[in-house]
Amino acid sequence: MLAIACLAAALASTGCLIGPDHCDPGAPFLPHWSRPLPEGLTDEPNDSVAWWTKFNDPVLSEMMVRTAQQNLTLGQAYERIAEARAQRAIARGGLFPDFFMDMSYSRIKSSNNGSPIGLTFQTPSFNYWSASLVDASWEIDVWGAVRRNLQAANADIDVAIEDHNAILVSLQGDVGANYVQARTLQHRILIAQRNVQLQRQSLQIAETKLEAGTVSKLDVYQARSNLYSTESLIPSLRQNLDIAYNRLAVLQGMPPQDLTNEVMGARQLFKIPDNIAVGLPIEIIRQRPDIRMAERQLAAQASRIGVAMADMLPRFTLNGTLGVNATSIDQWFTGDSLAYNFGPTARWNVLSFGRVWGNIEFQRARWRELVNNYQQTVLEASEEVENAMISYRFTQVRADQLYKAVEAAQGASAISEVQYEGGIIPFQTLLDAQRFQADLEDQYVAARGDTYTSLVNLYKALGGGWQEPFASGNLGADENPLGELQLDPQTMLPGPDAAGANPLAPDNPVPPMAPGEAIPPPMIIPQPMN
C-alpha cells in the first residue's frame, strides 16, 4: 500500500505537462516615437511614478492619497484580488488527496416472508455499526491538468492585481483632470466677475454722459446689455464648478459635496515641470497595467488549453478506506472488526461525441482572441500616448497665442475707454473692445486649463502612479506654497467685494457694485509691444 502511494507521488511529480507553455506573443511598436517630442518632453526613462508629486500641490496630493484609500470602485477591484487568491487555494488543493471520515449506525431486520424457498434467519434483526477512520481519494496528476489549472489560477491573480492597478491609474487621471477643471473654472469665474465690474464702470460713464446730455439712451442700453451678458456667464461656470466638486468628492469615496473650503483658497494651478521624461515606447509595455493585464490573461489561457487537452487521456485515481465494522459498538476496538480496501482505478472518456475536442478548440480560439487583444491593447496604448503628446504640444501653442491676443485686446480696451471719455469714438466701439477682451481672457484661461489637462492625460497614458499610490509629494519644510491664483507672475486678482465676501463663495455669484468702489486692475498687465 505504501509502495503504491510512493509510486503515485513519483508519477505526479515527474509527469508531463500537456498543452502549450506561455510565450511572448510579440507586440507591434516602434523603437521611437513617431514624431519629434514637443518642447519640454524628453525620451529619458519616464518618471511618471507618483507623477502628481512633481507639481508640489498639497491639495492635489491629498486628494490622490484619499482616492487610493477610499475609492469604492478601487475597493471592489481589491476584493477581486482576494477572490482570485481564494480560487488559487482551490486549484492548489487538487494536488493533494481528499480525506474523509464518517460514521454510521443501522438497525437491520430481514423479512422472513421475503426469504427465498421459505428460509428463515436465526437473527432476524441486528445492529450494524460502521466507521471509516480514513476514506481517501487521490487523482494522480499524470498529465499535468491540475498543475496547468494552478498555473492559470496564479496568472488570474496577476490579472486581478493589474486590473486593480489599471483602475487606480484611471482614477488618478480623473482626479487630476477634475482638479484642473475646478481650478480653471474658479479662475474663469474671477475673470468674469472682474469684467462685470469693469462693465459696470462703463455703464456708470454712459449714465453720467446721458445725464449731461452728451449721449443718447442707446449707449446706456448697450452698456446694460453688455453687462448682463457677462453676468449670465457666471451661473453656467458656477454650475460646472459644482459638478466638478461633486465628481472630486465621489472619486475620493465621499458623498457629493461642496469642496469650496478644501479646493478653493484662490490658488493658482501647479507649475508645469520644465522637463517631462516620457521614455520610449517599449517602456509603456513594461509599465501600463492594462498591457500587463492583457499579457497575464494570455498566460492563464495558455494553461487552460492544457487543462482541456488532459481530458483526452485516461485519469488514474488511488482510492482507499480504513475503518471498522461491527454489530456492536463494543467490538469496534477488536482486530476482527478492522476493514479496509485500497487500489487504483482508471477512467478514460473514450467516446464523448465531440465534447472534449470542442472544448479544446474553444480554448485555443479563446487564446488566439487574447493574442489579438494583447496586440490591440499595445497599439491603443501607443496611440493614447502619442495623442496625449500631440494634445499637450498644441494646447501650449494655442495658449501662448491667446496670451498675446489678450495683451493686445487689453491695450485696445484701455485706449478705447480713454477715447470714448474724450468723445473721439462711439460707445459701440468701446463695448466691442471690452467684449473682445473679456472673451479672449476667458479663452486664454480655458486654453491654459486644456494644457494642464493634456499633461495629466499624458501621465495617465504613460501608466504610472500605481507603484506609489500613497505618495504625497514634498509637503514638508521644503514645500513651496502656491501663490494666489493668477495667469502668470505679473497677474493680479480682484480682491473681496466691499462687504469683504469671497468672490468665489456660492452665495456671491456676482459682486455687488458699491458706491465709490475701486475697479481692480486688469487680470493681465499688458507688456510693451515691439
Automatic annotation (TrEMBL):
It comes from the Bacteria. It is a lipid-anchor. GO terms for cellular component: plasma membrane. GO terms for molecular function: efflux transmembrane transporter activity. Residues 472-530 are annotated as: Disordered. Transmembrane segments: none annotated. Belongs to the outer membrane factor (OMF) (TC 1.B.17) family. This is Outer membrane efflux family protein.
